[in-house]
Design goal:
The protein is mainly alpha-helical. The chain has one domain. Helices cover 71% and strands 0% of the residues. It is built from 3 helices and no strands. It is rod-shaped.
């Protein structure tokens, strides 16, 4: 996996969870995914796993194309 591909995976994968947590801080009565509250937002952090896989694959494909044009 390229050196910084994991960073984009973490940022993109956690973006939805951070957005829901931010909405709860601003408006505790906000409509959020089930289960409600911060527990529901924390479960969205599972999306980091496929984001990391996608970032890693993209980085490897990009590296391979740079080496073998």
């Amino acid at each position: 996996m390229p050196r910084r591909a994991w960073l984009s995976g973490v940022v993109l994968g956690s973006a939805l969870a951070v957005a829901v947590m931010s909405a709860l801080i601003v408006d505790p009565q906000a409509s959020v995914p089930q289960p409600d509250g911060f527990a529901g937002a924390a479960t969205l952090l599972v999306l980091v796993v496929p984001a990391l896989a996608g970032a890693g694959l993209g980085g490897l494909i990009g590296r391979r194309r740079a080496v073998h044009p």
